[in-house]
């Protein structure tokens, strides 16, 4: 099961103090563990280390989402040109809270237009009601996203929950992937997220999570 779970993992380093040396260590650890990808900040692109079979993911509008659609699209386009295979964008939560789901769809579509690879949409599920989670997932699907993702890991409302993942998975019905991210720090939680319907996991402490499989 350890080998199977690790292929779900975006091995993540989004610390504002990350250095090029830290990215090198992240790549080495990801390759040793066999994760699906690494996920890093756009300022750390391009990556000069040999990625091997690793996919390269980055973030957009991170972590607040309070950027214009044009800025998010420009940031994503620059990341793609610097080698990113996947982009995890943060929506503007204020649009959802105001019931402006068409605007949410439009900002996702603006980023979708410049990302030829995988686009994941971070909805900050802990900050939304169930109805808002459903509506936001529907907007992401309508805009052409490939994944919906629970959290940045930076919002004070919290990170991923089993309930949110179940609701997101039920809403997208297998047509989109579901990435659980934010606060997943042990094996039991990681497995619970997968059982709830997650098809990708965002982990910063991947080695520690995997070590829990034997405990």
TrEMBL record:
It catalyses: 2-deoxy-D-ribose 5-phosphate = D-glyceraldehyde 3-phosphate + acetaldehyde. SMART domains: DeoC. Its EC number is 4.1.2.4. It comes from the Bacteria. GO terms for cellular component: cytoplasm. Pfam families: DeoC (PF01791). One of its GO terms (molecular function) is deoxyribose-phosphate aldolase activity. It is found in: Cytoplasm. GO terms for biological process: 2-deoxyribose 1-phosphate catabolic process; carbohydrate catabolic process; deoxyribonucleotide catabolic process. The active site is at 88 (proton donor/acceptor), 149 (schiff-base intermediate with acetaldehyde), 179 (proton donor/acceptor). Pathway: Carbohydrate degradation; 2-deoxy-D-ribose 1-phosphate degradation; D-glyceraldehyde 3-phosphate and acetaldehyde from 2-deoxy-alpha-D-ribose 1-phosphate: step 2/2. Keywords: Cytoplasm, Lyase, Schiff base. It is an enzyme of class 4 (lyase). PANTHER family: DEOXYRIBOSE-PHOSPHATE ALDOLASE (PTHR10889:SF1). Catalyzes a reversible aldol reaction between acetaldehyde and D-glyceraldehyde 3-phosphate to generate 2-deoxy-D-ribose 5-phosphate. Belongs to the DeoC/FbaB aldolase family. DeoC type 1 subfamily. This is Deoxyribose-phosphate aldolase. It comes from Propionicimonas paludicola.
